[in-house]
Specification:
- With 331 residues, this protein is α+β, with helices and mostly antiparallel strands.
Length: 331
């Protein structure tokens, strides 16, 4: 299913008419109405972020939407010039805090055959005086994004609101993301292991457990590459994972991995979480494979999954966990 401009306008309008006080389920239903007949579900992913805002007067009246652009235009690159012009104006800098909601709609049986809708829940607050009365800025960076300095009690400029960010049809980007030349080889292997492991074989849908974000970068040769960062609502299952005596006890550790699978709702969840959260030391995976190669009880794994573990032990890899890409202090 391809979404034309009219569809995106519909999503933008749908997100704009729902207030965050109504809750994420109300937002999901609104997106569902816009995307029928697709079935839309929300992935509850903790993806909070923060970025620079704009400039306001002491009373909260808008001076500029972007602090960065305003400071650059008004100063000619000279922080002291900016201070001379506006040091007594009483202006304040704002910050935008937000979180991103991910909504998923399956469009086919393949792991990347799904539509991903991203909606930001944002609020702008007055964060600090534009100039610190106890410091003279040396550079524009000292004005735009200073380290330390005076902070004000956060004062919202307006209630929180939803803003539609984008809809991504990942099925149309499969070749691009897995390309040998421009794609992410670790993500290509991640998908291959998903499809041949018990996760996929026993019916787990990739998009029920994972959302994706892509970060472009230049490699050491100056070539354009892409890094795929999977996000999952199951990260909390291993967030506080600590080493215990059972790390040296293969069957006990295997039982613990089975509990993670049960909580996540699909086989081999512990393994794919390991790839994205890196919570297990290398030697523990070897003990797990030995324990899972046994017969009976929880210490059993089909040959297809043992092969995946054997390959990882021979050639280990991890994917980069997703950070707050949606908004950052540099954004």
């Amino acid at each position: 299913m391809r979404h034309e401009a009219a569809d995106l306008e519909c999503l933008t309008e749908a997100c704009g008419r729902i207030e965050p006080t109504a809750g994420a389920e109300a937002l999901r239903r609104c997106i569902q109405d816009a995307l029928r007949p697709l079935e839309v579900r929300r992935l509850s992913i903790d993806d909070e972020w923060y970025r620079l805002g704009g400039v306001v007067t002491a009373d909260g009246d808008r001076v500029a939407e972007s602090l960065y652009e305003w400071a650059d235009a008004e100063s000619g690159g000279d922080a002291l010039e900016l201070l001379a012009r506006y040091g007594d104006a009483g202006y304040c800098a704002t910050a935008i805090s937000g979180r991103t909601h991910y909504f998923i709609a399956a469009q086919g049986p393949g792991p990347l055959e799904f539509l991903q809708v991203e909606v930001d829940e944002i609020q702008e607050v007055v964060e600090r005086p534009l100039f610190d009365p106890d410091r003279i800025p040396d550079t524009l960076e000292d004005v735009i994004d200073p380290l330390g300095g005076v902070r004000l009690p956060p004062r919202p400029l307006a209630p929180p609101r939803y803003v539609f960010r984008r809809a991504v049809d990942w099925s149309g980007r499969f070749g691009e993301l897995t390309s040998e030349f421009t794609g992410d080889p670790r993500f290509r292997r991640f998908l291959e292991e998903w499809e041949r492991s018990s996760a996929s074989v026993h019916g787990a849908r990739f998009c029920d457990h994972w959302a994706l974000t892509v970060v472009p970068y230049l490699d050491s040769l100056g070539d354009h590459k892409q890094e795929v960062r999977p996000l999952t609502p199951d990260a909390h299952l291993v967030a506080d994972f600590v080493r215990t005596p059972e790390f040296s006890n293969g069957p006990a550790l295997a039982a613990r991995m089975r509990r993670i699978d049960h909580a996540a709702g699909y086989d081999m969840a512990w393994y794919f979480l390991m790839l994205t959260r890196n919570y297990l030391p290398y030697e523990a995976v070897g003990r797990l494979r030995a324990a899972f190669a046994g017969s009976g009880g929880v210490a059993y794994l089909p040959a297809r999954d043992l092969d995946v573990l054997a390959h990882w032990i021979e050639e280990p890899y991890h994917l980069q966990p997703c950070g707050p890409v949606a908004g950052s202090r540099a954004a």
